[in-house]
Every structure is written in structure tokens, then in C-alpha cells.
Amino acid sequence: MLYDNNKAIWVRDLEKYRTVEPTDIELYEKFKKSLSVVQDKDTGVVVVSFRHQSPDVAKLICEKIVQKINLDMRKADIAEYNRSMEYIKKSLAQVSVVDLKNVLLNIYQEQQKNLMLAELNDDYAYRIIDPAYTPEKKVLPNRMLIVIFALAIGFVISMLIVAVRIQLNAR
Length: 171
Description:
Blueprint: E1 3-4, E2 9-10, H1 24-34, E3 35-39, E4 46-50, H2 55-94, H3 98-120, H4 143-170
Antiparallel strand pairs: 1-2, 3-4
């Protein structure tokens, strides 16, 4: 996928793709190939990594993914705590048994505590143990390996050409 920043337009071969601008599915597939999320079964640690041409962009995307997960889970839990607390308030008004009221009040206090923790904690679902960093040296592509591979292929092709010429001259 090519994008011309100067002209602010997508530049793609229409023979290869249906549209000049990539579709959401194409973007998702490309993103999915670059994203890796692995959970260690023993420790429960989740490792999020992202491969991108720019290490700074990869770092930013990893950070944003964790922030978004934490924010969404936090919002969902806060809404759930608020709903359950409203239900408990309504139930307290209807219940006349003292023991049942005490149980409901204990549950209400627990929900209030959970709500407070959810509202205060930015790292709600996932806590970052080892923050994303920009590598100091490139990991991929391995240019030395590419050069060696290209030289080996060039050598093999030149030997084949020489062998074919010798065979043709021998006739």
C-alpha cells in the first residue's frame, strides 16, 4: 500500500487492487499480520508486539493498543458497577429483613470500592511491566544475509550460463 504524503493521495495499481484507497478489510489484514499478542500460560503475562517499518510507529501502536484495552474494559466495568449499585439501592428500599439489608449493604460497599479502583487506575486490565521501546539497531531486514544470498544466486546463475555455453560450443 502506497500513500503519497506530499499530495495526500493513495497511489496503487488498479490492476492489482479493486480501488485506489485500501478497504477496511485490506487494512485489517495488513494490521493483523503485523500484530502479535502472546500470553504465557504459566505466568499469564501478555506480550504485545508490532512490526512496522518505523520503530517509533511500532512503539506508539503497542502503547495505544494497551491504553485502548484498559480504557474500554474500565468503562465497561464502571458501567456494570453503577448498574449493580442502582439495583442494590432499589432492592434495599424494598427489603424489610435486617439480615438481608446488611448483606446488600456489604455488597454495595464492595461495589463502591471496585468502582473507586476502576475510576482511579489507568492501568486497569493490563499493567505495563516492560514498556515499549524503540530498538537501537535494526532487526529486519537483515541486509548482510540478503547480500550473501544474492551473491550466491548470482554465482549459481553465472555458473549455469557458463555450463550452457560450454555445452553449446562443444556441439
